[in-house]
Fold this sequence. Notes:
Largest sheet: 5 strands, antiparallel
Number of helices: 4
Distance between the termini: 70 Å
Order of helices and strands: HEHHHEEEEEEEE
Strand order of the largest sheet: 1-5-4-3-2
Amino acid sequence: MPRPVRTALAAALLLATAAGCGDAGGLQAAGSTPTATSPAKLWPQLTPASSPAWNYDDGETEVMKGIAVPGDDVRKVDPVAVVQAEISQHPDDYSGSKATYHETTRRMAYCGRTPADSRCPVLKAYYRDLTGDGHADLTLGFRLLPGNQTAVRVYTVQGGRLVQVMSNDDAVSQVELAGHSVIIHAPSDLADYEYRFQWTWDPDQHLFLLTHDEMLHLGKGPKASPSSSASPSPSPSATR
């Protein structure tokens, strides 16, 4: 049967079926469709910037010295020893009474006991393949004291060595793992809003990059008007 004839028959059957069904299940207008508008490009004569104005957390890796990884299994690494290695490798941040996180160092003395002491700043470790290589990676958190920040770190095994591939310091309210991403929620000074930072594994750079940095409404109250809403600022994380 030629294609135009088949098309005409199909259309006739469709009309007959619609007439037999009455209004039940019939198509109804959804109203007018808003006119699509393309983005308005501003200042076309402006010379494009060739370098960033400040650090957007491009990310760095760091080998954790003195940490053995038996059988390249990150689950066999002691999380407390990993934090102690960071303290040792960054004395300006952790060593001495005037160091920013000196209280973290002091409280490390309470770690490694059974049962775990609540004064230990090291949080529960999580193991999940975030890099897509089929092996578990280590997601570790520890309190940055005496302030209210939390360090969030991700470690993977590269060439038999434990390598830190993500580092973020912030006033953290929640952390999530999704696919190859680490999502960090942080409180905002603006009521009913929070900052949300998403770090995603980049297989070309072999580290996590800050791919999303946004302020989101939590839905508990009215949204801020454009005149009073705050724009997200670069993450205050400390990249190692």
